[in-house]
Amino acid sequence: MTKRSELRTSLPEDLYFYPTFGEEEVEAVSAVIRSGRTTQLSSSVVREFEEAFAGYVGAKEAIAVNSGTAALHTLLIACGIGPDDEVIVPAFTFIGTVGPVLQQGARPVFADIDPDSYCMTAEDTAQKITSWTKAIMPVDIFGHPADLDPLRDVAREHGVLLLEDACQAHGARYKGARVGGLTDAACYSFQESKNMSTAEGGMITTNDPELAERCREIRHQGEKEWGLIESLGYNYRMTAMQAALGIVQLGKLDKANDTRRQIANIYTNALKGLDLQLPKEKSYAWSVFHVYSFLVPKQLASRRDDIVQALKAQRVPAKIDYPWPLYTSPLFKDRSGPFDCPVTEDVCSRVISLPTYQSMSMDIAEKIGAVTHDVLAEFLK
Ligand SMILES: Cc1ncc(COP(=O)(O)O)c(C=O)c1O
Q1: Within the chain, which residue ranges are assigned CATH 3.40.640.10?
Q2: Dist CA 208 CA 287 (whole Å)
Q3: 64 phi/psi in degrees, rounded to 5
Q4: 3-class SS of residue 169
Q5: How far is the CA of 69 from the centre of ligand 1 (A)?
Q6: Residue 335's pLDDT is what?
Q7: Average pLDDT, integer, range 54-69
Q8: Exposure of 298 by Cβ count < 10 A (0-12 exposed, 13-18 middle, 19+ buried)?
Q9: What class has domain 253-380?
Q10: Is 152:177 a contact under the CB 8 Å cutoff?
Q11: Is the previous residue joined to 322 through a cis bond, with omega within 30 degrees of 0?
């Protein structure tokens, strides 16, 4: 068996994510620059990317923007969400999910998550619906889709929208179908940590052409046609260079997702003998393992940060995704609840994540799995 010290020196740099751009991306971006048509307004490449992405996820429409946050913000504006409205969101997510709700002056209401998938549950969502609720916004966290059918039932019963934050879930499947065309609308991020990247970028997908049209206007200053400003908009446009990156990356996405699933499988095999809660894929789900997250047992929760430090000391790029429920951040200190999400609080106190980026070799994944096993085994003694 390889000794720990040998593993330590053979592990790569401390990288939690690493995008994979090859010569095809360089060539595609160069071609756009050479063409002299570099913006969404002057080039057809953004439209080509939108069509390719809509086709891939199985949605009628796709609207490219310059970040996942811009996608969510544009969508909320297009759905007419504003002051006094409530949007139900999970607290186990990145602030990019909830920031746009606050930017619209609406109130985020936090619903709890499933202890296995870490996705927002329909049960707690139903408990938290009020007459002010305008939308339910689950997150397909770490690439695992939320349980969309029961959430859709709750949304229909109460006449509210089901909007999906799929920023970490490009290519993920729910009951065999790719997410993106299964809800009123979905949003993606192409920031460089994601399963496919345009450096920065985002996309909205929907089957509703009118909603898509409103999103297009908001993305471009609220302009309906030249000189006719329908409403207040933004400059959320994606560049043609980003779209060119996106077209190439989309072509590599299935392979990237397969690689991430293989890496997840290697970690599970390495860790399965230990007293840990390893990622569980629900029977409805095909996860794209944006990251690999496991829970330490409750008795080790108070030592979770020491474990992460011990992993980092062995050059394992471990991270805590996410250390606190969002509502515990100072941003929420003067805002009213409900903030009771006991499963979220428990998961936040015990979660540790490992990287799954698609350029990682299987050899390195094996080593990360082996070192993580050894470090955890020491703490679990
Ligand atoms: C779940 C989630 N929502 C929203 C966002 C925001 O995306 P972006 O960073 O592209 O603005 C991210 C990305 O980091 C995310 O992971």
Answers
A1: 23-248
A2: 26
A3: -85, 140
A4: coil
A5: 6
A6: 84
A7: 98
A8: exposed
A9: alpha beta
A10: no
A11: yes
The answer to whether the CB of 110 falls within 8 A of the CB of 341 is yes
- Identify which of 118, 188, 191 to mutate to test ligand 1's pocket (most ligand atoms within 8 A of the CB): 191
Helix (H, G, I), strand (E, B) or coil at 166: coil
Asked if residues 287 and 363 have their Cβ atoms less than 8 Å apart, the reply is: no
Q: What is the pLDDT of residues 62-95, one digit of tens each?
A: 999 999 999 999 999 999 999 989 999 999 999 9
374's tokens: 């050894």
Which CATH number applies to 23-248? 3.40.640.10
Residue carrying the six token digits 């990288």: 15
Residue 272 C-beta-side C-alpha neighbours within 13 Å:
7
Atom of ligand 1 nearest to the CA of 69: 11
Q: In which band, very low, low, confident or very high, does the pLDDT at 230 lie, cut at 50, 70 and 90?
A: confident
Please say if the pLDDT value at position 2 is more than 80.
no
Of 147, 259, 132, 240, the C-alpha closest to 195 is 259
261 Cβ contact list (under 8 Å, min separation 6): 287, 288, 289
Quick one: residue 241, left, alpha or beta (phi over 0 = left, psi -120 to 50 = alpha)? alpha
pLDDT digit string (tens) for 156-180? 999 999 999 999 999 999 999 999 9
Ligand 1 first shell, C-beta below 6 A: 67-69, 93-94, 96-97, 139, 165, 167-168, 189, 191, 202
Residues in the chain: 381
Say how far apart CA 379 and CA 381 lie, in whole Å: 6
Q: Are 194 and 245 a contacting pair, CB within 8 Å?
A: no
- Give Cα 73 to chain centroid, integer Å: 15
Residue with tokens 């100072």: 330
Distance of CA 84 to the CA centre of its chain: 27
* pLDDT for the residue numbered 6: 57
pLDDT-based confidence at residue 17 (cuts at 50, 70, 90): confident
Q: What is the pLDDT of residue 18?
A: 77
The predicted pLDDT at position 1 comes to: 45
